[in-house]
Amino acid sequence: MIYLDNAATSFPKPRETVRAMAAALETCGANPGRSGHALALAAGRIVERCREAIAQMLGETDASRVAFCQNATDALNMAIHGVLRTGDHAVSTLLEHNSVLRPLSELSRSGIITLTLVPPDAQGRIRAADIEAAMRPNTRLVAMTHMSNVLGVAQDVRAVGAVCRRHGALLLADCAQTAGHLPLAPRAWGCDLLAMPGHKGLLGPHGTGALWVRPGVAVAPLRQGGTGSASESVFQPRMMPDALESGTLNLPGIAGLEAGMHEALGRMAETHAHVVMLCDLLREALLDLPGVRVYTPQGASLVTFNVEGVGSQETAAVMNRAGVAVRGGLHCAPGAHRVLGTLDTGAVRVSPGLYNLREDVLAAARIIAAMVKENR
Question: How far is 182 from 241, CA to CA, in rounded Å?
């Protein structure tokens, strides 16, 4: 099977990721931060090493501002529900994943907040001027993707950060598609919160992610429970990261994430250039096919397309039967498909990764060419 669905989850994982997870379970699988014996302390050191590695990746020195989460969805929900209050206004974009759109929309539907969604321009980019035009006196949060999982185009988060600073609003960056692929600099961008998964570009396992919170920003906990700290109190501690980390952490997942990050960050520039090269190669091949519409621009980190007269799910199924794994449908991003005019059909997404070869995307192109020939 040729795997070209890395925008959903990276695969295969480095052997180091798998080994680190097994070692954590076999040698120090105790509960980190809960007991004072040697195994618990060793487990705690694994957690803190990974936390420090994430902080270093973000250019931060205070690792306590990094809270581990189940995934990017969990991190985004923590941030959104943790900072918005009754009467607040939030601004987001039509390019967002449902991990942003759904919690914001539910809060809006319930009357807790009001919400404005900003569309992209014709090139698929969110303009800072349009974000500024949407700001109100009670705007508390701007939430935006660093890169759309449908268009693969990086957004100018720094420019939006400057708008937020001028208006006294918080900025939440969704880096689901860029962590491990592009440098992340939340403080320089003017971010207050940054969410990321561990299972995509960072080459970690499923069920891992993190939320970074700028010093001075308070996030109300989404969950309350045991933290191994301040146990004499029946109230949730407010210090980071304990405030956001109730319950037993995913020790093997965190161990695997640290190992995956080492591989991903050591090859980040190489990976990004390689992925863009593969996407441009596929894009050019598809543009030569009659009846194929490509939605992503040159230089994107993925390719979305449709074959005329064939549903996106059907195209993905044909490719799967031919031994190529891609994704059809709406990719949990209905706003982006509304912008593209594909809300009814969805689109096929091809997202190569570090371990893919030129031949992989050329094989995908041949399958699509055969479909086009058969349908004409």
Answer: 25
Rounded Cα–Cα distance for residues 256 and 286 (Å): 37
Buried b (16+ CB within 10 A) or exposed e, 306-334: bbeebbbeebbebbeebebbbbbbbbbbb
Phi/psi region, residue 6 (left: phi>0; alpha: psi -120 to 50; beta: rest), is: alpha
Judge whether 176 and 149 are in contact, CB under 8 Å: yes
- State the DSSP code for 293: E
Q: What is the pLDDT of residue 32?
A: 86
Q: What is the pLDDT of residues 214-268, one digit of tens each?
A: 999 999 999 988 887 878 888 888 989 999 999 999 999 999 999 999 999 999 9
Distance CA 376, CA 371 (A): 9
Q: What is the pLDDT of residues 353-366, one digit of tens each?
A: 999 999 999 999 99
CATH 3.40.640.10 in the chain is located at 72-197
For 215, residues 6+ apart whose C-beta sits below 8 A from its C-beta are: 62, 65
Where do the CATH 3.90.1150.10 domains begin and end in the chain? 267-375
Q: Would you say the C-alpha torsion 265, 269, 270, 271 has a positive or negative sign?
A: positive
3-class SS at 142? strand
Whole-prediction pTM: 0.96
Q: Which CATH class is domain 267-375?
A: alpha beta
Contacts of 284 (CB under 8 A, 6+ apart): none
Residue in this structure with the two tokens 């090493």, named with its chain if needed: 49
CATH class (in words) of the domain with range 72-197: alpha beta
Residue 368: CB partners within 8 Å, gap ≥ 6? Answer: 286, 289, 292, 305, 307, 315, 319
**Do the beta carbons of residue 356 and residue 1 sit within 8 Å?**
no
Question: Between the CA of residue 345 and those of 2, 93, 213, 242, 348, what are the distances in Å?
Answer: 24, 21, 38, 44, 10
Amino acid in the structure at residue 51: R
CA 323 to chain centre: 26
Residues 6 or more apart whose CB falls under 8 angstroms from that of 281 comprise 358, 361, 362
